Amino acid sequence: MNNPVLFFFAVLLGICFGSLLNVVVYRLPHMIKHQEDGFNLWLPRSHCPLCAHQLTCFDTIPLFSWLILRGRCRYCSHAISCRYPLVELSCMLLWVMMAALLPPGGTLIASWILVWLLLALTLIDIEHQLLPDLLTLPLLWLGMLFQLLHCLPHISLQQSVIGALVGYLVLWLLAYGYRLMRGKEALGLGDAKLLAALGAWLGWQALPLLLLLASLSSLIWLCASRLISRRSLSAPFPFGPGLAAAGLILFIIRNAA
Q1: Locate the Prepilin type IV endopeptidase peptidase domain: which residues (predicted)?
Q2: Whether residue 4 is found in the same domain as residue 91
Q3: Is 254 exposed, middle or buried, given 0-12, 13-18 or 19+ CB atoms closer than 10 A?
């Protein structure tokens, strides 16, 4: 990366949006499952889960506060999970990587939004086996919007629309067929909506390779988790992370400078 200003903004914005990512990943599934009054993405204010002390603005950026406070709450010394700084670090590193690979402009901004949404969906699906419409549907419409704004120069609007339709139908038909034959669910509609969204970003031509890469990455992850944690092969396994990883890889290959 030859532009230090761009590098600075990629680091700064990556950390800030990584902090927001932590909030969304924790709160959105809770909002969907419990629908409590007064609980949303903004309220109540972020606080320590043990002593309930409200966090300062600095405390809500775990990448710094977690390291300085050695992974403990400033007010009660309760241990804080390393997950929060790792999520911020992942977002920041991916944003810096996109800034290094893509030219400045609309495509880079689109890539940052894509990375953020795919990270959110991946983390939520891993923990809750859930791909919320509040994330998959904006991802789909943004794919078409960025194509109209000429931020995705390698596909046409027609390819984007067909990609979304075909992507949804492919996994919907697979899920419907499996349910007819086995009498139980194999894939959720969230997976179909995520594939539709990626079809809108990549075009229908990318769908076969996308599904192949997603299946391979999911198989590797399943085998690894089976070896490490003795996870049962019959236990529910999220397909969203594999789709997200494959979609991001193909986006980079197609748009890298």
Answers
A1: 112-222
A2: yes
A3: middle
